[in-house]
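Re: that backbone. Tokens:
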């Protein structure tokens, strides 16, 4: 290279099993000396290939040095091409302004009105967090390295990675269908590309490596949600084929047991119960998409699989309970117990997974015997303080009884009261969580952000609702956080949420208007949101226990 350029690469084998990163570094000042090190030992060569390589650049008598770096998963030549196309100049102030303008353009998609400056800082920080991942993973010519180490080209130059799907399928991806609709098709196509590279849809892809981290095939509800919401920039037939292949992939953890027995034995697979519960959520998405596409046989197969969670419900204790290979229940069993990595549940316990049926809340309520029994159990869930024991996952934070807001399996649970006719209890819980678990301090999030999921929960909840079923486009009401919010949605329209008498005291919904007309439902649909509707909440200090009580007013089931 010349006296102003350094190039190199690093191969990484770790959590993501195979990553290749190539880079090109350029300086605006001449590099007087380049020293390569093998760990801490200097070597007299301009090129070095060892396990612990590093280098030191020395410049002459200069006061300021500007350095710019570009990376690629393909080659140093591609990194140089990226650098030339994306940053050909040395004007630092121009780059700062360009970056600020781009972020402001995105942040203006959601505008809130509030006298509470701290709450606005929390809101816009959350908004920022929801746009950090997924990340673009291709060079300016569209090339990228696939899961099989081959080089592919995305003609749209819009291939994505950093898909923390077990986290984000719950709120971030549904939020993207509202606030980042222009990226949804590209994300789906990126997942379908990964399917073609590794014969299954991604679990948790990071660059060119599949981490296989977390239970479930959580790309499935994301794809189903996009299709059911009318996104058409991907091939639906290919997508459904990939979803079915993933749901029957024999190498997928526990799938042979699901196919053969309808449940995964706890004495055969670690975290079996939570894995199976996740699969049931995913299978609902396959069924719903198949139904809309007229695939009756697929619909019947996967709608049945979506109900396999019932195999784990023990009516004698009214808890989800691990089941053994011989069909017996795990004995002894403490639903509060959590053992990270080798227990029955992934980053959770039996209490939390008892309510982990976002795809079928009404079916779960029926298992308990009705609304009263269900809400009594929910009340106990938020009050129970039994110890999770030694070895519990460090991710289980933000506790309200057994509810853990710092980790994803609990995120929908506060909204389940709405399905049982006690919407006011949902309002209480979500307003407390927004106020106490999200602050403008450096430690302002109660748990792991997980690529935007924690913040997406806040943004949706601040609007006054949450999509409990990750694939159905039905948003259950909670308690709006601000007096007014405007959200730019698909087609250039604006969705408006108004709560003019909202305050720290007025947390309960008294009544609702949709487009100026009285609205007695305790939910709103995706179609109403993207049509640019105006949703107005009238708030009060005391709960209106009749709001959302009638079965006809509760969130609908679209499948």
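Recovered sequence:
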């Amino acid at each position: 290279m010349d006296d102003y350029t350094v190039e190199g690469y690093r191969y990484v084998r770790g959590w993501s099993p195979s990553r290749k990163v190539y880079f090109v570094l350029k300086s605006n000042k001449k590099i007087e000396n380049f020293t390569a090190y093998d760990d801490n030992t200097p070597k007299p060569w301009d090129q070095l290939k060892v396990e612990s390589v590093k280098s030191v650049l020395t410049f002459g008598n200069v006061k300021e040095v500007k350095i710019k770096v570009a990376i690629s998963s393909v080659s140093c030549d591609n990194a140089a091409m990226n650098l030339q196309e994306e940053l050909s100049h040395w004007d630092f102030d121009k780059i700062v302004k360009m970056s600020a303008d781009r972020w402001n353009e995105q942040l203006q998609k959601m505008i809130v009105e509030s006298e509470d400056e701290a709450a606005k800082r929390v809101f816009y920080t959350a908004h920022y967090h929801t746009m950090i991942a997924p990340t673009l993973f291709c060079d300016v010519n569209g090339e990228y390295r696939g899961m099989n180490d081959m080089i592919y080209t995305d003609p749209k130059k819009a291939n994505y990675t950093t898909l923390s799907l077990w986290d984000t399928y719950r709120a971030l991806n549904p939020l993207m269908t509202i606030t980042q609709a222009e990226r949804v098709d590209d994300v789906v196509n990126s997942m379908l590309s990964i399917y073609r590279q590794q014969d299954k849809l991604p679990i948790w892809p990071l660059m060119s490596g599949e981490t296989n981290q977390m239970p479930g095939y959580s790309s499935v509800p994301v794809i189903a949600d996009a299709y059911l919401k009318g996104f058409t920039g991907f091939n639906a037939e290919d997508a459904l084929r990939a979803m079915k292949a993933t749901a029957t992939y024999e190498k997928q953890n526990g799938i042979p047991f699901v196919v053969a027995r309808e449940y995964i034995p706890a004495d055969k697979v670690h975290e079996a119960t939570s894995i199976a519960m996740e699969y049931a959520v995913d299978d609902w998405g396959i069924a719903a998409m198949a139904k809309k596409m007229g695939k009756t046989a697929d619909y019947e197969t996967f709608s049945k699989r979506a109900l396999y969670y019932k195999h784990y419900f023990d009516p004698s204790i009214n808890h989800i309970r691990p089941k053994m290979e011989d069909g017996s229940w795990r004995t002894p069993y403490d639903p509060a117990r959590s053992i990270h990595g080798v227990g029955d549940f992934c980053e959770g316990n039996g209490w939390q997974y008892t309510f982990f049926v976002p795809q079928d809340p009404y079916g779960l309520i029926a298992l308990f015997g009705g609304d009263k029994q269900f809400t009594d159990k929910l009340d106990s869930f938020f009050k129970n303080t039994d110890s999770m024991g030694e070895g519990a996952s460090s991710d289980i934070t933000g506790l309200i009884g057994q509810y853990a807001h710092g980790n994803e399996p609990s995120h929908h649970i506060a909204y389940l009261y709405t399905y049982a006719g006690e919407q006011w209890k949902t309002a209480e819980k979500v307003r407390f969580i927004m106020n106490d678990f999200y602050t403008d301090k450096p430690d302002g999030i109660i748990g792991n952000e997980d690529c935007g999921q924690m913040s997406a929960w806040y943004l949706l909840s601040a609007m006054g609702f949450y999509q409990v079923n990750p694939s159905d486009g039905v948003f259950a009401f909670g308690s709006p956080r601000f007096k007014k919010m405007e959200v730019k949605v698909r087609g250039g329209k604006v969705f408006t949420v108004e709560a003019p008498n909202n305050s720290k005291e007025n947390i309960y919904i008294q009544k609702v208007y949709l487009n100026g007309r009285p609205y007695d439902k305790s939910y709103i649909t995706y179609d109403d949101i993207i049509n640019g509707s105006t949703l107005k909440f009238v708030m009060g200090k005391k709960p209106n226990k009749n709001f959302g009580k009638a079965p006809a007013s509760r969130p609908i089931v679209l499948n």
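The chain has two domains: 5-89, 108-553. Residues 5-89 form one domain.
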